[in-house]
Specification:
The protein has one domain: Porin. It contains no helices and eight strands.
Length: about 140
C-alpha cells in the first residue's frame, strides 16, 4: 500500500527580484513646435528596491545634452516614475506608470511642458525590458 503525503508550507510569499537595468523606448505626442512624434530611449535601474531612470530628450536633432532624470517606486507588480527635464528656456515635469509582466513593463504617462508661459501636456507610451540572462556551460580546460 502506497502512502501519499501532502505538505503545505506556510510562510511569506517569495518576492520576485526586480533588481536589474531595464531599457526601452518612450513614444510621445508631438509638441506644437515639433514636426514629428519622437521615439527616445529610456533606462530604468532598480537596485535594492530603489528606482531611478533617465530618458533621452530630443526637441530637435541632435538630442539635448541633458537627459530627463527621475526616481520611482515599486508596489508589487506596479512601477511609477516621476522626473523632470530643464534646459533653461524649456522644461517639463514627467510621470509614467505601468505594470510588470515577467521581465518587462509597459509604461504610460504624461509630460507637462512649460512653453511661452503656458502648460502643454504631452502623452507618452512605451516599454522597458530587462535582458534575458542566458546560462551557458563554461568551457573546461583540461
Amino acid at each position: 500500500m502506497a502512502l501519499a503525503l501532502a505538505v503545505t508550507v506556510v510562510g511569506p510569499a517569495r518576492a520576485e527580484v526586480r533588481d536589474a537595468v531595464y531599457r526601452g523606448t518612450l513614444v510621445c505626442d508631438k509638441l506644437p513646435f515639433m514636426h514629428t512624434q519622437m521615439r527616445e530611449a529610456i533606462e530604468v535601474i532598480i537596485a535594492d528596491g530603489k528606482v531611478k531612470y533617465s530618458h533621452v530628450v530630443r526637441v530637435q536633432d541632435p538630442p539635448e545634452t541633458a537627459a530627463e532624470q527621475g526616481t520611482g517606486t515599486l508596489n508589487g507588480q506596479d512601477i511609477s516614475l516621476q522626473g523632470a527635464w530643464d534646459s533653461g528656456n524649456r522644461r517639463y515635469k514627467a510621470s509614467y506608470s505601468g505594470s510588470f509582466v515577467r521581465r518587462s513593463a509597459r509604461l504610460k504617462g504624461t509630460q507637462i511642458w512649460a512653453i511661452d508661459g503656458k502648460d502643454v501636456t504631452r502623452n507618452c507610451v512605451g516599454s522597458i525590458k530587462r535582458p534575458l540572462k542566458v546560462f551557458l556551460p563554461r568551457d573546461r580546460k583540461t
